[in-house]
């Protein structure tokens, strides 16, 4: 038997063969950065001042040379953007519907320079590392990646600001000996934005700012087709500040959250709490509009308003793939109501 917890506005739903010169991390060094809270101009095209981080510290890795010796080489670095972020030019990638992002990574050694990620093959210009054939070299003073800058660009007008949390943005790989296409598959370092909050004057308050919790109760492990065990959630909202102090604006709302693995229209569930990472692969939350029509997560829908006050709502129900038998236990899901205006 399944048990659930569900909550809204925030919505909370209760051995490797290594090529020559590879740097193998010991282990991957994770840099977790927390950016400052800041006010930004709520104008498409506005670019923030860079947010900087300098975490200091060094980390180690082992260079292996099974095929040949490498004399007097700098370290070459490659970086990739995480999560398949779309490149837009000018160093920016699309972070979400509202923001673009540019990440610059500090390359140490003699280079001592910020380089825009992603990059394919950047030397630290310090040719003082060696590796003998058949042996390995331990380097204990890597520091590239410990410093950097993040710049944001507004894509379209924002309501309630933007909060970024636990977002992996860059992975960096290294080796000795110059190359353009041959790096280890194990990242030396990984950079994650643990928190960043960008404030704007416009805001919409949903249900008086109260978290909306939904309890589905005891559920069977089979037959969850998204039409049974439905819960109806009416919502009210009020918008104010900034552009809302002038003429009435058109507002669209969306249910924002991580999609289920079996259908991106549904919200994923976890078994280890609202912020948990143990995903239940065969269980999601399906949404409908109050008239019974489809409501996809992460898609905006127009809402009715009188002045800057309006009503919305949706229907939520557990759903699993046809024929699936979901193991017994508690499940949770979380989402957020987000708004955009025109």
From TrEMBL:
Keyword Mitochondrion found: no
Highest taxon of source: Bacteria
Pfam families, per database record: Fimbrial (PF00419)
Cross-referenced InterPro entries: Adhesion_dom_fimbrial (IPR000259), Adhesion_dom_fimbrial_sf (IPR036937), Adhesion_dom_sf (IPR008966), Bact_Fimbrial_Adh_Pro (IPR050263)
Alphabetically ordered keywords of this record: Signal
GO cellular component, one term: pilus
Swiss-Prot/TrEMBL GO biological process terms: cell adhesion involved in single-species biofilm formation
Positions of the Fimbrial-type adhesion domain: 192-342
Signal peptide: 1-19
Name of this protein: Fimbrial protein
């Amino acid at each position: 038997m399944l048990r659930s917890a569900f909550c809204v506005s925030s919505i909370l739903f209760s051995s490797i063969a290594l090529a020559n010169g590879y740097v193998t991390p010991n282990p991957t060094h994770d840099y977790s950065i927390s950016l400052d809270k800041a006010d930004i101009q709520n104008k498409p095209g506005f670019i923030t001042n860079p947010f900087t981080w300098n975490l200091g510290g060094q980390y180690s890795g082992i260079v292996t040379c099974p095929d040949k010796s490498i004399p007097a080489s700098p370290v070459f670095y490659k970086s990739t953007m995480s999560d398949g972020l779309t490149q837009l030019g000018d160093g920016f990638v699309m972070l979400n519907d509202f923001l673009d992002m540019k990440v610059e990574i500090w390359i140490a050694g003699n280079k001592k320079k910020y380089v825009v990620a992603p990059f394919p093959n950047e030397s630290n210009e310090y040719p003082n590392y060696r590796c003998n054939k058949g042996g390995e070299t331990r380097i204990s003073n890597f520091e590239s990646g410990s410093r950097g800058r993040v710049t944001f660009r507004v894509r379209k007008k924002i309501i309630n600001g933007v909060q970024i949390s636990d977002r992996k943005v860059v992975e960096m790989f290294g080796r000795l000996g110059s190359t353009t296409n041959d790096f280890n598959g194990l990242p030396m370092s990984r950079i994650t934005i643990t928190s960043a909050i960008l404030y704007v004057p416009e805001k919409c308050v949903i249900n008086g700012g109260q978290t909306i919790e939904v309890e589905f109760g005891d559920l069977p492990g089979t037959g969850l087709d998204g039409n049974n065990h439905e819960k109806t959630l009416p919502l009210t909202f009020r918008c104010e500040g900034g552009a809302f102090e002038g003429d009435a604006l058109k507002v669209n709302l969306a249910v924002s959250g991580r999609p289920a693995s079996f259908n991106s229209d549904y919200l994923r569930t976890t078994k280890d709490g609202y912020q948990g990472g143990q995903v239940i692969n065969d269980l999601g939350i399906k949404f409908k509009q109050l008239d019974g029509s489809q409501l996809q997560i992460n898609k905006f829908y127009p809402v009715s308003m009188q002045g800057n006050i309006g009503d919305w709502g949706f229907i939520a129900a557990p759903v699993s793939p046809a024929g699936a038998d979901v193991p017994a236990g508690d499940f949770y899901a979380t989402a957020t109501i987000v708004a955009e205006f025109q």
